[in-house]
Amino acid sequence: MTVTPLGYLFLGSALFGVLLAVGVRRRFAANGKPIGAAASLFFGFVLVTISTPFVMGSAWGGVSVYKMMTFPRFEATVIHFDSEWEEMTRTDSDGFSYTEDVLMHTPTLQFVDDTGQTVTQRGNIRSGKEPVIGDTVTVGYRPGQSLYVISVASIGLLTGLAVMMLILGYILAEVLMFVLGRKSKRLNKFGGILLGHIIIGGGMLGMLAGMLYGVYSYFQPGSDMPFGIMLLCLFFSLVLALAFTGMFFVGRKDRK
After folding, report:
1. What is the dihedral angle through the alpha carbons of 123, 129, 131, 132, rounded to the nearest 10 degrees?
2. Per residue in 30-53, pLDDT tens?
3. CB–CB of 149/137 below 8 Å?
4. pTM over 0.85
5. Each residue of 213-231: pLDDT tens digit?
6. What sections of the protein cross the membrane (predicted)?
């Protein structure tokens, strides 16, 4: 059986999580608070499930950013799309999770590259919104490699991935400092910035963007959004805007 580079990367990330778990066990023992086998297995499971997505996600995100920044860009046309049902987990307003089947679409794109060759490939992004045949999208492409769709959705996906990698990386860094028996004021300060500005502030900005998009959608031709829903979106947009503004000015006052 041949192991691919991604396979080696996965094994390395899992091994890193295991080594961290061993270090945590030894650090507790050195502090006079030894932990049992069950706790060690628990720490090992948690750290492996953190280190693996961190390393794999960082690698995938790095490759995606590289493609987006360096690949020549072309305007591709949607010529076909495939649809299939996919089971997704969602959370309702009460915090309960449930699964539902969602019809996802993958477009087939076609364009002419710098050499005059016609390239036809499936897009790398799936969406619940049905593609329109004849629409154009910007793609990055280099001969011999798969294309990369450059859109608001792909940029949003990479932004969300970057935030998630920051959170996972911070957790792993804190665990590593504990294993080494060190403390870092800079790391603690970064944790405060990550929580207060990136997670909370970014989450508020994301919700504000969603509410404003709801208001914008109401005024689009053919919209079937009820007037009451638009008013709710407008109300929460104002609340979030005021809250975000207040948080910004309070943060500036604290820094002074």
Report:
1. -160
2. 888 888 888 889 888 999 999 999
3. yes
4. no
5. 888 888 877 777 788 888 8
6. 6-24, 36-60, 147-180, 192-215, 227-250
